[in-house]
Specification:
Pfam families: PI3K_1B_p101 (PF10486). It comes from Cyprinus carpio. This is Phosphoinositide 3-kinase regulatory subunit 6-like isoform X1. InterPro entries: PIK3R5/6 (IPR019522). One of its GO terms (molecular function) is 1-phosphatidylinositol-3-kinase regulator activity. This protein is an alpha+beta fold. The chain contains 23 helices and 18 strands. The chain is elongated and about 90 Å long. About 10% of the residues have low confidence.
Length: 727
């Protein structure tokens, strides 16, 4: 801590300059290169250096500002967003920043507002944060730690929590415990007093700088005792008052902070006792790790979060009871003569207590019909909590709780997440109990089990198509999140082979902390609904959703095609095609064709095919977000081309006495057999589709056309990235 306000040598500054340039060159590197899996390590190493040595933060900020000004001058937009995020995250890690550097950062960010979206939106948001940090140094640190570790106060009641869900299909059970140990390796103890002491120390250092005696302040905070809570509340009040006053009265704020500093030194009970080493590093957020086995597990955890159920009681008192509903019902007629002799004798024995009881217990009583309350019914508990009973408290303030839901897996995992989002919106359509109080943000770290399995013959199916799309939209996401999936698996494998007493690896936790703190700009992945009709007399139907793709296959169609290749002396010989030997199924397709002008046209066609693929990934040529690519497998094996088109919705059915198999999002758990027809269309938000006959509040007056029909009612899966994309 003595080096906090010391200068940095030219050698160190040159080293930081080379580190920043290496990160920028990483953005332009070939993603197929040998170092593709190491992308993101340079950024992590840089922030890790600042975390361990805060004295280099000022020099790093100067380097980042120079590079940001250069990127704007040469119009290198690919570097602007990474530099912006790195700059602000370094400010969050810093202890003391000079006034002139605040001014330079603010004017640099303000000059970027003239750029197009998303650069102007991110720069404007960060410029406001830097202005607030300049007026009240340390307020960003205070708000971040207070929200992530539930340091409740009346002025800033926001609370955040990170929920990590891993798909057991992707992660084998042998690696789950290793992942859990790495994710939950945060500061031991999780005592709120430790975090409040850090906030007090960091804020006073950020505001007073060299006027503050670091060791003496740390020692006084260590022995402050019960008065620490009062000082913490006073500090929050001072910072909030400073933000309301604006840039005026700087000297008054400095004087008040100096008096606050002297009060802490005076109130210390025994400042002569030695104190532990002072720490001002930004602590990791509170993270809970879950293996996503139940489909409603995300809903249950969000309900526990809203009900303020302690973490240690989540599984003990809620999850186990959620599997069953118990009730105690009286089955007797109330007549003594109808009671069995065995039950009658047992009641007689129970009633024969003392002499006084024996005379008063000759009359029998009927058992009361009662329903036992169950803790697992979260919706019932939440409704009781709203009314003020039930034993649980539910916050009345709207959107004060933020749940950061981070899933780790592949396209199958995102398909499950889309289904969960649809289920939550459907539950909340009638009663806004959860989404009214909890702000849900979704994050995605792509990991596939293909890195664990041996290489098979042929080209394996790409299980990370959605991750590739997110990476193409956001290069910084591709660099820091997309390329780390293989490394996460390797670290988990190394952890599983080590002893339990080995030190935890904070790499994964640092990546989760940076990702959930910085990426606040969602990319909306379109969700499609499919109505599956099965063959048979019952004509049963199932409605599902998918976000990546839908595959249709005819199992009874002969799979061997006349494209057997015999490599003889470097030449390829094709077998003669026989249409009688290989034939497909005749299907009818009715669809609404997508167009750039959004003028949809009804089309219909019939063709023979052996399979079909519906891909949801947006096309660069079609600007309409909600359109799918439908591709049919050609029956002539000598032609490599396939019949494909883009459509907004489609209705596909078999014209013969055949059935086909449907698989959603490449997930074998979502495979449906004996299907006769399917209807694919954009998924509507259940919150908008509920009670369609009620009068809309979005109207211009009596007899006018309601404005509600112009609202986008489709449901999308918002995945937070570093730059996002406009919906």
């Amino acid at each position: 801590m003595e080096e906090t306000f010391c200068g940095v040598s030219s050698v160190m500054e040159s080293s930081l300059y080379h580190n920043v340039h290496s990160i920028l060159r990483e953005l332009d590197a070939n993603p197929q290169g040998g170092s593709a899996c190491n992308k993101g390590m340079l950024r992590w190493n840089l922030h890790n250096r600042v975390d361990k040595n805060p004295s280099i933060s000022v020099s790093l900020l100067r380097v980042l500002i120079k590079e940001l000004e250069k990127a704007e001058r040469i119009d290198s937009k690919i570097r602007i967003i990474p530099l912006l995020h790195t700059l602000v995250y370094t400010v969050l890690q810093s202890v003391f920043i000079p006034e002139d550097l605040y001014q330079r950062m603010y004017f640099c960010l303000k000059s970027l507002v003239t750029l197009p979206k998303p650069y102007c939106a991110i720069a404007l948001n960060y410029a406001r944060q830097m202005k607030m940090e300049q007026n009240a140094p340390g307020i960003l640190y205070q708000k971040r730690v207070s929200a992530e570790h539930n340091l409740c106060n009346d002025i800033y009641p926001l609370q955040e929590k990170v929920f990590v869900f891993v798909d057991p299909v992707v992660f084998p059970l042998s690696l789950v415990s290793a992942l859990k140990a790495d994710v939950e390796c945060a500061d031991p103890g999780r005592d709120s007093i430790i975090y409040k002491r850090r906030v007090l120390l960091h804020t006073v250092l950020a505001g007073l700088g060299k006027k503050c005696q670091v060791d003496q302040l740390s020692q006084s905070l260590e022995h402050l005792g019960e008065e620490l809570e009062l000082h913490f509340q006073d500090l929050v009040t001072i910072l909030e008052q400073r933000t309301e006053d604006g840039p005026s009265n700087v000297n008054q704020y400095k004087t008040r902070l100096q008096e606050f500093y002297q009060d802490i030194l005076t109130a210390a009970k025994d400042p002569s006792c030695p104190a532990s080493q002072a720490e001002t590093q930004l602590p990791s957020p509170e993270v809970s790790f879950h293996v996503w086995t139940k489909e409603d597990e995300i809903w249950n955890e969000l309900a526990n979060f809203a009900l303020m159920v302690p973490t240690e009681q989540n599984s003990a008192c809620l999850d186990e009871d959620d599997l069953k509903r118990t009730s105690v019902v009286s089955t007797d007629s109330g007549i003594e003569g109808d009671m069995p002799i065995s039950e009658l004798s047992s009641i007689m024995l129970e009633s024969q207590g003392g002499p006084e009881e024996q005379s008063s217990s000759q009359s029998f009583y009927r058992r009361v019909c009662a329903r036992c309350p169950i803790a697992g019914n979260r919706k019932t508990l939440m409704m009781k909590a709203v009314k003020g009973n039930g034993g649980y408290s539910l916050t009345k303030e709207e959107r004060n709780l933020t749940a950061r839901i981070l899933v780790m897996g592949d396209d199958r995992t995102l398909g499950r997440l889309a289904k969960t989002l649809h289920t939550i919106r459907k539950r909340e359509a009638r009663h806004l109990l959860l989404t009214k109080r909890v702000n849900m943000e979704m994050y995605y770290i792509p990991v596939t089990d293909q890195t664990l399995s041996p290489v098979q013959e042929g080209v394996p199916e790409d299980m990370l198509t959605l991750a590739g799309y997110l990476g193409s939209v956001d290069p910084w996401y591709d660099c820091n999140i997309n390329r780390l999936g293989a490394m996460i698996i390797k670290l988990a494998q190394m952890k599983s082979t080590q002893s339990e007493s080995s030190d935890p690896n904070t790499f994964l936790l640092d990546i989760i902390s940076y990702y959930t703190r910085v990426s606040q700009h969602p990319v909306h992945l379109p969700i499609y609904s499919v109505k599956i009709c099965f063959s048979g007399l019952s004509n049963t139907t199932v409605e599902e959703v998918f976000v990546a793709q839908l595959t249709m296959d005819f199992p009874e169609v002969k799979r061997y095609r006349a494209t057997f290749k015999d490599t003889i002396k470097g030449s390829v010989r094709y077998k003669k095609y026989n249409p009688q030997e290989f034939h497909g199924a005749l299907v009818s397709v009715n669809y609404r064709k997508a167009s750039i002008s959004d003028r949809e046209k009804e089309m219909d066609m019939s063709l023979s095919t052996s399979g079909m693929l519906i891909s949801v990934l947006p096309s660069c040529r079609v600007k309409s977000l909600h359109s799918v690519s439908i591709r049919f497998q050609d029956m002539n094996p000598t032609r490599s081309s396939t019949h494909s088109f883009r459509a907004v919705s489609a209705n596909i059915r078999v014209l013969e006495e055949r059935t086909f198999t449907v698989c959603l999002d490449k997930d074998r758990r979502k495979t449906f057999m004996n299907v006769h027809s399917i209807e694919v269309s954009p998924c509507l938000d259940p919150g908008y589709s509920h009670q369609p006959n009620t009068k809309s509040k979005y109207s211009l007056g009596e007899g006018s056309e309601p404005l509600g029909k112009y609202i986008n009612k489709t449901l999308t899966l918002p995945i937070n990235t570093f730059c996002g994309i406009e919906q």
